[in-house]
Design brief:
alpha+beta, binds zinc ion, five-stranded antiparallel beta sheet
């Protein structure tokens, strides 16, 4: 039986529960969409995948295949098992929120990853306590030797995917970043949908 495929609508968020040992495959359907990604302990959402703890655990700014992300309690939560993209992802930048768009000149409400996370978790009956710093999959933030950052164009192609294995029972949440004021989702500045599948092995 083909595993069910779930759509993350453009500019929106979607969360799902995944059991320890299961894989979640995230597909960059149209190629240049940044996907903010979070994982929480399904039994206690105050424990979550932490980029700052994972960076010291891995001693890397950018994860590679085989690397395991850890929580704010320094326990394994997700392992990056497969990546068909060139492997350019960001672990440094905060999720966008309404204030970010106000500061960029938006006078009306703008959809944002922070609210998408809340909505995705609420759909499953979970109440988010805070917005952890996300794993920004496919987001290209090159750095210089001096430590300056730029907002780069994603290097992924349509259909590129990432497979993550759950190391504990977890709630995994994705947001197809609604950023359309800056070219972080490609020069067209047109956020697109993405998809995910949960794969189980007997
Ligand atoms: Zn965003």
């Amino acid at each position: 039986m083909m595993p069910q495929i779930t759509t993350i609508p453009a500019r929106s968020g979607k969360a799902t529960q995944i059991q320890k040992g299961q894989l979640i495959k995230l597909i960059n359907t149209h190629g240049e969409q940044v996907i903010d990604t979070w994982a929480f302990n399904a039994l206690d959402v105050t424990e979550f995948m932490s980029m700052e703890h994972s960076r010291v655990h891995l001693l890397k700014l950018r994860p590679e295949v085989g690397d395991t992300f850890i929580t704010n309690q320094r326990r394994p939560i997700l392992t990056l098992l497969e990546d068909t993209s060139p492997g350019i992802h960001d672990t440094m930048l905060a999720a966008c929120d309404e204030t970010r768009y106000k500061l960029l000149g938006c006078s009306e409400y703008h959809q944002n990853c922070t609210d998408n996370l809340s909505a995705g978790m609420a759909e499953l009956g979970f109440k988010k306590q805070e917005t952890p710093s996300p794993l920004n999959l496919f987001m290209n933030i090159p750095w210089t030797e001096k430590g300056s950052l730029t907002l780069g164009r994603p290097t992924s192609k349509p259909g590129d995917y990432i497979a993550l294995r759950a190391e504990m029972d977890a709630v995994v949440a994705f947001s197809a970043c609604p950023q359309d004021l800056l070219p972080i989702n490609g020069p067209a500045q047109q956020p697109t949908e993405a998809h995910f599948q949960i794969l189980s092995f007997p």
